[in-house]
Amino acid sequence: MRRNRSSLASDLGFLGFLVLMFICVVFIAGSGSGYMQNIIILNIAFLLALVTYFTTVTAGLTLNLAFIFIYGLFTVYQTVSRGETIGVSTYFWLVMVPLITVMLWIFTSSSRELQAENERLKKTTANLATVDENTDLRNSVAFQKDASLFTGISTRYGIPLTLLVVKVKYWSEIRRLIPEEQLSEAIYDVSQLSQSSIRTNDALYLLDKDDATWGLLLFTDHDGARIVIERIKLKLQQLNENEFSGKYKVNLGLKIGAVQYDAAAIENPLDFIVQAKKQLEYDV
Known about the structure:
There is one protein chain. It is built from 9 helices and 5 strands, in the order ααααβαβααββαβα. With 284 residues, the chain is α+β, with helices and mostly antiparallel strands. It folds into 2 domains: 127 residues; 145 residues, Alpha-Beta Plaits.
């Protein structure tokens, strides 16, 4: 409902601004005398509206008060010195210039509300999304949800659970060597490499896309995890020789850390990731 009101106010503000500008053009075209003066005042009105658009309504209305004061002094001067009467155009511009400013402010404020709400919705969607759009892999949000379930199964049935954290070596430097359009493709290729090295009942997650970091939840112990690690590194070596070196012009290397779940030492899924990442320091 709030979004609809903001959208309606934005539309009405923009429509009102166009209508006022049309009225001003018709008025200037129909005025026989003072054509140049009316054009100058129209430009001033438009300038004040632009100031309001890029700053705040307070600044815009303050400048409008200054305009009314100066224009009033100018009109009084003409009336006293030249004996001219106050014409319709004077009252027209005294009313129209503030109206143009207010109407553009309504449009601007409503548009900014819509933009702010759109950003909030994007952030909310990103926080709730559990699948990466480029690789179709579950992300860190999904990991936190699944890890609680997996650790519960591990504790209840006494099944060993190990988390592997896989990270591309020197990723920050590699990002500078690989064209931007190939970065997502490189992440996808490494994801497929990791996916093909685990069983169907194990789970793969893209924990950090910017830092090229994956997590693999395996129902196995340390010895089983070492087998998976060797399998991943062997496949990576084969791909470096046959595909990666020609495709990306660099050889990709991986650092892999593993930690087995221990309910007494690991408090939550985030702690699980932190402890697994510490093991990356020993894989050089």
